[in-house]
Amino acid sequence: xxxxxxxxxxxxxxxxxxxxxxxxxxxxxxxxxxxxxxxxxxxxxxxxxxxxxxxxxxxxxxxxxxxxxxxxxxxxxxxxxxxxxxxxxxxxxxxxxxxxxxxxxxxxxxxxxxxxxxxxxxxxxxxxxxxxxxxxxxxxxxxxxxxxxxxxxxxxxxxxxxxxxxxxxxxxxxxxxxxxxxxxxxxxxxxxxxxxxxxxxxxxxxxxxxxxxxxxxxxxxxxxxxxxxxxxxxxxxxxxxxxxxxxxxxxxxxxxxx
Length: 258
Hints:
Oligomer: single chain
Strand order of the largest sheet: 5-4-3-7-6
């Protein structure tokens, strides 16, 4: 499952905002937005490295697991290392900015405290946003697991066929096929037709059932073979729809790894 936290567009948007904030902060302090932009370009790798190490290593592996002593210790180490790298960037930036009449910049241009405050403020804001998103995503996962558990409490699919309600055990369903205005449920022993839509029936089924095509839902437990564009369930080969291939491969990979 692809989460928001792993979506690159969120990261790109976030860092564009960060660059704008940094340029405006230093630009107002120095009264020189051009020099601020070049300085931020030099500082950005440190901000990126510190932020991702803190948010994606220290927070999930130490803070979330309540290893508070290690979290505090490694956080201090991270600050020390990033400050050291920041001082190196400052040194080279001063040499570089000397070519741009450095004496014309404001008095805060040499204030390293300002740089450090902004740097770590951004890192901790990022950590706070990360934790909020992580909590929300965990809540969605818990809700999904709860719904899955509720579905599995009923070991069979209830469906209307020939004006009667029929219960079909999940373990007996091989695949479900959409045919015009009805579906056909293929079981181990028979075929059952119903005036249902395949898009609705998938929402009533547990996660062992995977939609591989606009016309097919298969029982993962019946899979014998999977290729790039086909799946073999029992003795029937079914096409995997082009728009479903990526999701099908990811679902099968995740389910089998668990």
